[in-house]
Specification:
Blueprint: H1 2-19, E1 39-46, H2 51-67, H3 71-79, E2 80-84, E3 94-100, H4 111-116, H5 122-135, E4 136-145
Antiparallel strand pairs: 1-3, 1-4, 2-3
Helix pairs in contact: 2-5
Amino acid sequence: MRRLSGVLMACAILLVPAFSHGHGDLFAQAQKTTYTGDVVVLGFSINPDKVGDYEKVLGQLKDALGKSEAPEAKQQLAGWKVLKNATPNPDGTIVYLHVISPVVKDADYSILNNIYTAVKDPTEQKAVYDMYRGAMKQALFVIQGPMVADLSK
């Protein structure tokens, strides 16, 4: 019994700091997401009861990029489109496709990083993170590469 208590105490010592107040800055330090292709298509499967939350996050992304003072943010905003599949998947999830063209080289395309540039409060950042993660069933794919044919020309 003492051994079990010791193991539980060790786990608590390791885990409590990770969940304690003051670690909200972890949300603001996510890895930068960049793309090398001329065009990027990303697919995300969204939980059907969380579609409103996901679209709210997309609205926050649009607001953050629109208010950003970074010159690349305006370019990102101009080239980033999101489509919602009209037909649910067999499991009920809804697929959202992000189409980015042209890609701004070296710009950060992380949805959360871009929102966090406008949302500084760690509590609000955690709320955005929780809403985003709660809506997301899974990331489906990332396709990036050069434009091989432009049929409009």
